């Protein structure tokens, strides 16, 4: 599962070849290690708007050092720009005026966050200017290099105090493989969130259900939610029981083996969570399958099994848990979509329909949830797992390099993103679909 | 400007190499010729929903032959499926049941259109199922091959009678380079539109303003709007006056030379249109510039000139024309965005911000327009012009092949899309951003 090209490209001979042939030079991405500070360096703040004044205080609560006036020659680990004050297109030049002089002062794997107001909540020229920010951040993500990430975070009026968990995630190595994304805070649902108390264990005392938890991305999600303090209830099919039980024992968790497409599965899950845990705080619909064929050769069985596992089951389970009131206040439901669900893919009319449907599930629930419960999805790009290890070399190489990081992501990158959604301090982060893709080129 | 690789790949030797090396095999795309029928073949209809019953009649008004029961072994030029009846995810299998048996009966450059209901107007499981359609159509667009196109058209309730101009465009060779797109009809603004009278000259008696009209894509837009019956008023900078005057004389049009970023430009344009034409029906903001640099090296001048021409000028001109009531009922405003404005691009923080802002302009106007006036944008991908001819060979080759058609588009492809928006019968087509990109892989 290691990236041999990346190791080679960082050897003396590799560096020489990469430079002379113009090959991709994937940077070794920094990732979060338990016990480390969130940000290993100083973050420079800029811009004038609704958020600027409180940013320093919010970061300081997370143990992150920031400055309004970076010293000459200092190395900056992050840049945060409050663009909420840019109310017309001719004022966008403030972006250039802040960023251009600082671009050469960035440390490795730097983090850039631009804060704006959700355009759909604005009118006229202000809406235009705020929408323009997206072209800026997506371009900067593609050119920043050296493992850097760039995000646009739209914060609704009234949600200013609810940005801590999101800034903590996006400024830290937890978001190593998340770049070029647009996040909305408080645009739908709740605009306020419980304060961050202990950011190292935000899920202490919480219960997290994870489907498909026995291996791969599901296993990492279980591990990261456990690290953050949750009791994990792993779900998988009976055939995967051995791996599931072993993992849940390791994590002091609980398990349930069933086929999520069974008619009584939602009811059984709800009953189990009520009886043994008194409810659930985090629901991660991770289980998924592929049955690829071009549409000309697609059997009804291939179509129906993919839709049933990837889409209808998450719909029915979410509905049952919500209708029975099993999801606790400030809880979160997390779907797993896919780049294929956004861009489409050859041989995947069934899979892409199911994953686009997961985005539809987020959209359909985001407006009706109460008590600070949220629904969001992750959309993984090329994530290195046992499954992708079986992909032929050239296809895998091309797939891995078609992103701003020139490398595949790791299951932990998806898991960290899920953990950010799951944090009760993310109660105003609702209705988002964030790609975990190293800003992969593919899209729509 | 010809595509030498495409010609070569269709020669006997080229065909052999393409097949044995697995190279892209771009199909020669059929394009619309004046006087030809809209669709050269039979369209098969399927699905059961709000639209199914009226589709045959609508197509027949456009001179298009359709059938509910295609004869065994017949070659089909198009497939239209009414998916508005699919109210839950388990019913999506109806897509497979209709399309799979027909996929081998398609003629060259086939056209597929799936009709749905805008998900944002629905709730619950129906919203999920309708959103899932997008993964299906985008995947099918990538695998259909042979110059085929696949679109998803969301038709709001009440807008059923307003689909004619859109079906005519998407089923005809006018949409040769448009694929994998999602179009909304009646989702914002007006849900009804004037009936199609003469589809060959929908703009007879209408006045169309085109900025940057002297050459390239602007020239083609002027030519196609003229073909469709419009009196074209071309606008360009004084330096381009010779080309502009020559073209407008050829098209029996009118012209105005000015710098659209000048303070008095919106007022001068409005006055000219009122005095000489009694108003305007179509406004195409085509003029645009690039001044590429990475952000680290971006001068204030490069930033400001790009924003001023590409974004602030279209905003100010639109505002002035609307405020003065110069835009006639059933008129249309058309912006030109770009794939870079959607996906971002290295060296284009300024350009991508301006083009994302054009999408913001569409969003900001779409809800406030009355009298059947619409606002939409085109987002061109790799379009072959004199500008792209100067791009180095390898970069150009890669750029041209990174799409489902394995070839660049032509300026006329952008122009035909503008003409579809401009058609008074498209009065319910509002708030759209349609890519003209051969379903380019790049996106967000």
From TrEMBL, chains A, B:
It comes from Nocardioides kribbensis. Residues 206-381 form the Ketoreductase domain. One of its GO terms (molecular function) is 3-oxoacyl-[acyl-carrier-protein] reductase (NADPH) activity. It is an enzyme of class 1 (oxidoreductase). Its EC number is 1.1.1.100. SUPFAM superfamilies: NAD(P)-binding Rossmann-fold domains (SSF51735). This is 3-oxoacyl-ACP reductase. Belongs to the short-chain dehydrogenases/reductases (SDR) family. InterPro entries: KR_dom, NAD(P)-bd_dom_sf, SDR_fam. Keywords: Oxidoreductase. Pfam families: adh_short (PF00106). PANTHER family: 3-OXOACYL-[ACYL-CARRIER-PROTEIN] REDUCTASE [NADH], SHORT-CHAIN DEHYDROGENASES/REDUCTASES FAMILY MEMBER. The lineage of its organism: Bacteria, Bacillati, Actinomycetota, Actinomycetes, Propionibacteriales.
